[in-house]
Amino acid sequence: MFFKEKPVQAEGPMDLEAVMKKYDRESNTRIWEGKPKILVTAVLASFALFCIYVTLFATWLEEVRLTSFEAFIVLLGYLVYPVRKGEQKKNHMPWYDIVAMACGTGAFLYYTFSAKTIIQQGSYFTWWQIIIGIVGIFALAEVCRRSVGLPILIVAGSFLVYALIWGLSNPNLLSKLEYLVHYIFYSKEGILSTPINVCSKFIVVFIIFGAFLERTGIADFFIQFANAIVGGFSGGPAKVAVVASALEGMVSGSSVANTVGSGSVTIPLMKKTGYTPEFAAAAEASASTGGQIMPPIMGAAAFLMADYVGVPYSNIAVRAILPAVLYFAGVFIAVHLEAKKKGLRGLTKEELPKLKPLLKKLYLLIPLILLIYFVGSSMFTIQYAAAIAIIAAVVVSFFNKESRITPKRFFEALAAGGQGMITVAAACGIAGIIAGTITMTGLANMMINGIVALAGNQVIVALVLTMLCCIVLGMGVPTTANYCIMAATCAPILVRMGVPAIAAHFFVFYFGIVADLTPPVALAAYAGAAIAQANPMKTALIATKLAIGAFIVPYIFALNPAMLLVDTNGWEIILMCITSLVGMFALSSAIGGYFLRQMTWYQRILAAAGGLLMIYPGLVTDLIGLALVAIAAAMQFMGMKKHPAV
Asked: Given 3-state DSSP classes, what are the helix, strand and coil percentages for the chain, each rounded to the nearest 5?
């Protein structure tokens, strides 16, 4: 993004901006310079201020609030994103983009200023109102194509074609079209449904908060702090990547941006330490992708999940802690064992940053701490808590001259926040179209009944089918939109099969995320490979192996939601944390083939089986798992005594 501060440059000739443009659709923006750039910045900043005002103070009719929000999204979408990827002409916007921008923005503004009249019309619409609706739908779809990509539009287009040809019972095609446009554009079941409502109400202020927090220098602080804590241990730079990405994940929701941002520092260091380029890239990609499951932000999907499930946002964030910790523990253990297997050292004392100066910068965490406290205590609404955190970010920036948020940087942060909303809002709007079409045609019930019949009484079959759907869809759809679609289609299937609603929604959320690591479209892994100058497919396969926790933990909390702190107590939670971490260590050892020394095939089987049983909550499974892991460990220890030189 041209309003985002550039990450620290990696060693060598790697062009990080080119990597972002290749693997992150959001980074392919128009090039504005001089006065046009000032104008576009002002419009983006105005949009951010508009969102803050509306979400905090305005008491507008919901239709007015949502359509004015979408009008801004269409306007900014055409201003920021060119028609083709890689277009480099400066200060240029072709006439057809101007026409499309004006017509699309006008379509939503028509609804904004005629909202009361449209609501009173009921189901009767004139032909020109239908045309306005069609123009608005196509304009939003084009913004989504430019900022997100084609896959989500192919999914949406397929459902719309199904609705027009088979899904709606009216024999007249024009009547079908009229009903479809009414339902998708003018009702609150399509574009203006839950995804865009939550986006305009909650997600926007957190995106703006992230833009301000980034300018305080907190990302560099996280990397330096992680270096000081774990950089000196065996394979230190890889552990730094895991810890820093976990910390950054609390405020960032883009796996590719996380990979490029922190990977520009950690990947060269990992290679220098002795990790292979593929492993270095995979470690960074798997850690950065995990940022989307790390509370409190969780890639913005936590807000949507709270609305879908009907529980407070703080409830979602708390339940996400243990699965997220297990995920990062799995990656951390894997890179540790790889370092031990290769005999890799950490950073030297001279290379490590001093901890004492870093402790003086702990004030950078104040905005994040305030946000978590206010949201967790329900002292303020989510929007007000985020607004206070934004103010706190501005205040703490004044403690450091280099990162001080001056008036210029203040408006740049607002502009970056405004730009960051375009992709999320466009994807949410299209996700609303998909969910609305599925509901309108009755396809949702047909899908639910079909998969329930196919799975029979076997929950595991439904889970596997749902996992495959999430991963395939996630290969071309952003996490937020992917979750919206899966929440409307697959989550109800799991609920029908007896999976608790909270566990069902977490399940589809997790498997939508791992698509960024899963071949063949593993964008985060490929971005890491580009920085490491490594083989992309090999990197993606290693990243998938490192992120094994994200493939196993969802099955465990779907089958036993105690891991999500459902129907459990304090003692059980403590025991579960201990046994799950031991189990994750055993599982990572089995996958990597190394514990105290190289493991035999039967030792790996014992460790894997024992690890899985220990991760699954329950006293019996814990005891059996512990026995299996103990046997494997004893074999390793005895082998070390017999062959101490190995």
From this structure: 75, 0, 25
